[in-house]
Specification:
alpha+beta, 2 domains, 6-stranded mixed beta sheet, 5-stranded antiparallel beta sheet, 11 strands, elongated
Length: 486
């Protein structure tokens, strides 16, 4: 499998060199996440621990390559058991538990359970349950327990610790019942960030070691609810020419919907083009740049995921790309404000009778390019930078399609879906840019709105106001991305 993986990565790199953000996610928390839960249960039999790992599609894809140690493309039970045992041993080493200040010895309490629930696009997710126990003999009286999970794999995701007691009085800093059903049923509030709880403390009273109540069963390790990703779903099923053509059209439509989703820069595009006076040709260039940048970004991130396996954390790259995108937008806003102020200053000088330093052999009837507007070359570079900022953060859905295409042997079809998705984005953003450009032309026409006395001042301030809006958007995007770096 490793040889096939490297070949696929090389193929992706070649395609990318030749020039070949968000639909519904398959995993409730996103396709990049690795989620962990530590469930501690106190009883007369001692201290039981269930350590649960839930990997979404992208990290599970990389992990399956690591599980397949002989590289034959089919992980076998012995390979799965070896990986599960090693992962549970790592969890044991990272888990710190102490009662009354004395550290406890944690060990395995049975065979780990490794399953691969179905995910988006025909890919698999991964769920591992490690049954553990801490060596401690209950003694009558009041005690305190501390739990700390030191695991840090660099992935974002849900982290929780729960502490429960069977028949004893308990006061705890963490819940007794898992809010996610031990990573099987995540809360669906899109505004609530996933918890990052890695430690907990509780005090409890052991009344009597005899007559203990029957142990309550641990939470069922049922399959979680999976919402199918509409883009990733296109890669599965029987593939015929009519089906492929319809799938490509749907992918283009999903790309258009993705471009219309909140936070994808529509306000930015409108504000920038209103302030900088772009042309229809540059509006088309914006759309093309977004499509190419997004497509190449997906290919590059997919190739890195395939080649680097478990050593690569793609969501960290996405976060830093988001930081770079926001910073680039902020720089464009600063440039737009600067040029707007210069233009306003130049018009003010002309209104007071100051002549330009150069001479024209013909009457000065055309708009003053030197003070009021940037050169075409500068505007072109800005439009390309705007397109780069809009497309440099790859969509998780498109990455899922690429990985599913590699795993199912439909690489060319997957590439076609990703390209169609990018084209759909480009059409919407280019259309918006063109509409904004034509609206600006109508405003500044000789008999347009800008010719009205009251509107002249507003029109003069429009480039500066647009630049300020672009700067604010870039700043918000950058700060939000920086807040996700941990």
């Amino acid at each position: 499998m490793k040889a096939r993986t490297l070949a696929a990565a090389l193929c992706l790199g070649v395609v990318a060199s030749l020039g070949l953000a968000t639909a519904a996610l398959g995993h409730p928390l996103g396709n990049y996440t690795v989620n962990r839960a530590v469930a501690v249960t106190l009883s007369h039999d001692g201290i039981g621990v269930r350590y649960v790992v839930d990997m979404a599609e992208i990290p599970a894809f990389a992990t399956l390559q690591a599980i397949d140690s002989d590289g034959n493309g089919n992980p076998e039970p012995l390979e799965e058991r070896a990986w599960a045992d090693a992962t549970c041993e790592t969890a044991v080493a990272a888990l710190v538990m102490a009662v009354d200040g004395r550290r406890l010895s944690v060990a395995s309490a049975g065979d780990p359970a490794l399953t691969f629930p179905a995910g988006a696009g025909g890919l698999e997710t991964l769920r591992l349950v490690c049954p553990l126990e801490a060596q401690w003999t209950p003694v009558a009286g009041e005690h305190a327990i501390d739990v700390l999970d030191r695991t840090d794999d660099g992935h974002v995701g849900w982290r929780e610790v729960t502490i429960a007691a069977e028949g004893w009085m308990l006061s705890s800093t963490v819940p007794a019942v898992s809010p996610s059903g031990q990573l099987t049923a995540y809360p669906t509030d899109p505004l609530a960030p996933p918890p990052d709880i890695r430690s907990g403390m509780a005090t409890f009273r052991v009344a009597d070691a005899s007559g203990a109540p029957a142990a309550a069963g641990a939470a069922a390790a049922g399959r979680r609810f999976m919402s199918e990703d509409p883009l990733a779903a296109l890669i599965a099923g029987n593939l015929t020419l009519p089906v492929a053509l319809v799938a490509l059209l749907i992918a283009g439509g999903l790309g258009a919907v993705h471009a219309l989703s909140p936070g994808h820069g529509k306000t930015l595009v409108a504000a920038y083009l209103l302030g900088s006076g772009g042309t229809l040709r540059q509006a088309a260039g914006l759309g093309i740049t977004v499509a190419i940048t997004h497509t190449l970004g997906v290919f590059a991130l997919g190739a890195a995921t395939l080649a680097a396996g478990e050593l690569f954390v793609p969501e960290r790259v996405v976060v830093w790309l988001s930081v770079a995108s926001g910073a680039l937008v902020a720089l464009l806003g600063i440039g737009l404000v600067w040029r707007g102020l210069r233009a306003a200053h130049g018009r003010t000088r002309d209104d007071h009778g100051h002549q330009p330093t150069h001479e024209h052999p013909h009457p000065h009837l055309h708009p003053h390019e030197h003070a009021g507007r940037p050169s075409s070359a500068l505007r072109l570079r800005s439009i390309l930078a705007l397109g780069l900022a809009g497309g440099m953060v790859p969509s998780a859905s498109a990455l899922i399609v690429l990985l599913a295409a590699v795993s199912t042997g439909r690489l060319l079809f997957g590439i076609g879906l990703i390209v169609a998705f990018g084209v759909g984005m480009a059409v919407v953003l280019a259309g918006l840019a063109a509409a904004t450009t034509m609206a600006r032309r109508a405003i500044v026409a000789p008999r347009g709105i800008a010719s009205w006395p009251l509107a002249r001042t507003v029109t003069r301030l429009l480039p500066v106001a647009s630049g300020i809006l672009v700067l604010i958007i870039g700043g918000v995007v950058t700060l939000a991305a920086l807040g996700r770096i941990g």
